[in-house]
Amino acid sequence: ILRAFNPWYGVQFFLEHGARGFVILGSVVLAITGAEALYADMGHFGKRPIRLAFFVAVLPALVLNYLGQGALILRDPAAAANPFYALAPRWFLYPLIGIAASAAIVASQALISGAFSLTQQAVQLGYVPRVTIIHTSKREAGQIYIPEVNVALMVGSLALVLSFKSAGALAAAYGIAVTGTMVITTMLFAVIARGRWRWPLWQVTALTAAFLVVDGAFFSANVVKIAAGGWVPVALALLLFTLMTTWKSGRQLLDRLLRQGALPIELLLEDIGRRGVHRVPGTAVFLTSTSQGAPVVLMHHLKHNHVLHAEVILLSVRSAEVPEIDDAKRVCVEPLGHGFHRVVATYGFMETPSVPALLERARGFGISAAPMSTSYFLGRERLLPSGSSGLARWRKAIFVLMSRNARSATEFFGIPPNRVVELGAQIEF
């Protein structure tokens, strides 16, 4: 069995079996499933623990196990029906089932944690509506729990098991998902290596081509299984892609409409100084998605209540395309006069913003914002998909549905709910 390390046997296999040998790659790839989970673990544990665990324990154990299965089949071809469990003596069968089940739980937990992290990052980058993010550790920022994602994974897993009914039938869907992930990861590596690391083009091209030869071969071998169940991950991917791009496009369109309808802040301050609007003690924080002009919620408040707080803060929270932002660069405060301040806070896509913490940091820039005398004003838009914007009507309907089911800004930004005032507005888009 040790002669299996000789790559010539693989070449000879393809020469003898031709196209059938290539299709068998779709089953061979299942022997390396779990490698895609390393990418999810990398963000939680770092490179060093992953490398140590893989090369010291995981890789030697896998090689020994597969060599043992091969040796067993060479000796007893009937063992090919289930070589993994046939390796163990009969008295160890049930303990081995327990070990395999535990390994599956550990592996699934890695992917679940990865799904939580990716969802959080998608929210911060504006591709997914706000969701409930629960931090499970006070020391590690990346340890989070998202109930909505957990429920979706549970429902999806049960639906797949009940519909496919066997591991063999599920293998086609799993093969497409795993090999597709590997191809996409290789492409993303090329983008990062060229755009972020500034590698020479020839190096990026050579290394990417080498990876794609392997990943592309495995993916191509699995494409023939689309009709047998491989269409499931493709359909799910298209669904998620449609939802994410719809949300991104809808938010950009909505922000553009709000900016077009916003009054220049200079004109508002000039009018306030000329008319002498009545001011009351305390601080009013107006959350706005744009850092230009006067937010709509401020205009509605002034229109209906004819009063302003002594201190007014226009707060915008931005998300940067980096994992984390240094605390020194977190907050930017710009005095506008007449008791107005514009505060722009920046967060990385792996961080969760907290408005009270932001105001605590902003107090060092000349802002008082005492917790018990601060009120938060939020806008609640009622979206009407009857405008003449460039977004298709069916995508508008999806965007409205997603917007209605998004988590409230009060919960997402950690704002004390008893200090919040919401003002509604209708927007045609």
Which helices and strands, and how do they pair?
Elements: H1 8-17, H2 19-28, H3 37-45, H4 47-75, H5 83-86, H6 93-124, E1 134-135, E2 144-145, H7 147-164, H8 167-195, H9 201-223, H10 226-261, H11 265-275, E3 279-287, H12 296-305, E4 308-319, E5 331-337, E6 340-347, H13 355-362, E7 374-384, H14 393-405, H15 409-412, E8 420-428
Parallel strand pairs: 3-4, 3-7, 4-6, 7-8
Antiparallel strand pairs: 1-2, 5-6
3D structure, described in words:
With 429 residues, the chain is an alpha/beta fold. Helix content is 57%, strand content 14%. The protein has helices at residues 8-17, 19-28, 37-45, 47-75, 83-86, 93-124, 147-164, 167-195, 201-223, 226-261, 265-275, 296-305, 355-362, 393-405, 409-412; strands spanning 134-135, 144-145, 279-287, 308-319, 331-337, 340-347, 374-384, 420-428. A six-stranded mixed sheet has the order 5-6-4-3-7-8, sandwiched between helices. A hairpin with a 2-residue loop joins strand 5 (331-337) and strand 6. Helix 1 (8-17) crosses helix 2 (19-28), helix 3 runs antiparallel to helix 4 (47-75) and helix 8 (167-195) runs antiparallel to helix 9. The chain is elongated, with a radius of gyration of 28 Å.
